[in-house]
Amino acid sequence: MSYIGRFAPSPTGPLHMGSLVAAVASYLQAKSHQGKWLLRIEDLDPPREIKGAADNIIRTLEQFGFEWDDEICYQSKRSELYEEILQQLNVQGHIYSCACSRTDIHATGSMTAFGVRYAGTCRAGIARGKSARSIRLMVTDTSIFFADKIQGNYQQNLHQDIGDFVVRRADGQTAYQLAVVIDDAAQGITEIVRGSDLLDSTPRQIFLQQLLDYTTPQYAHIPVIVNRQGEKLSKQTRATAIDTDSAGAALVHALCYLQQQPPRSLRHATVGEIWDWAREHWQLQHVARQRMIKA
Ligand code: GLU
Predict the structure, then answer these.
(1) What is the pTM of this model?
(2) How many domains is the chain built from?
(3) CATH number at residue 250
(4) Which atom of ligand 1 is the closest one to the Cα of 6?
(5) Does the residue 290 lie in any domain?
(6) Which has more pLDDT, 254 or 239?
(7) Are residues 195 and 49 in the same domain?
(8) Residue 181 placed within a domain
(9) Strand runs (DSSP E) across 87-213, as ranges?
(10) Pocket lined around ligand 1, Cβ cut-off 6 Å
(11) Which residues pair with 218 in a beta bridge?
């Protein structure tokens, strides 16, 4: 089977070092397998999106010399497909409407290592006088295991750790967990290389893949870059946008985060030369088995 990888940024701001590292890792992993590398814009969260951010990310990737295969996929244009799959899950009896507000969820839920576990309040039906807000997927009391290529063996029991989770949000948008599973399957993704902040989401995604009869891809979760306060670099933590005028330096920097040990001589090389070196020397097994790396 031929390799298909992807990079799936959310357009919540310009590309920063954390997202560049994810792009570089997924790209080199695909290219070292003579695979395809697809670009998907995960624009399903209008309140968090910044106008122009998607174009800005695409332009930045171009300036870095990334080349993606096929057309760019925009999740905002795929609601019909998501709706169809949601219907299918409904017919199979896997989903239910939920009337709980954030306050209800916190009041009735229990705290686990992964946040507030949903208590399942609306599983048996919505209480009289309340109206449906979101749609949730029923999970089962079984353990989901997977072997991450970087982080090693990982296990979660969705019933105990997470509870029934949202597949359609109160604002009517398809939730990330469902959209990402549908698109990874539709695009034939064979391996997902992304930040370790999504490690905890992977069992939910594998559970959905099993329900929908999709093949589960391989996973490799790279360490996320955190600031001095231990917060993941993101727009919310005011991560600085990548300076494309010094793309070469940023690329070498990204390779250092990924423990690829680029030679000193590359510091003055062109972006093309850096990519040539990186393609030839990329080793996923050199990436640190850590959830976080300090910036
Ligand atoms: N859109 C997500 C993000 O930017 C990544 C999703 C994924 O790689 O599965 O954090």
Answers:
(1) 0.96
(2) 2
(3) 3.40.50.620
(4) 8
(5) yes
(6) 254
(7) yes
(8) no
(9) 95-98, 110-112, 115-117, 134-137, 143-148, 152-157, 165-168, 191-195
(10) 8-10, 42, 180, 194, 198
(11) 191
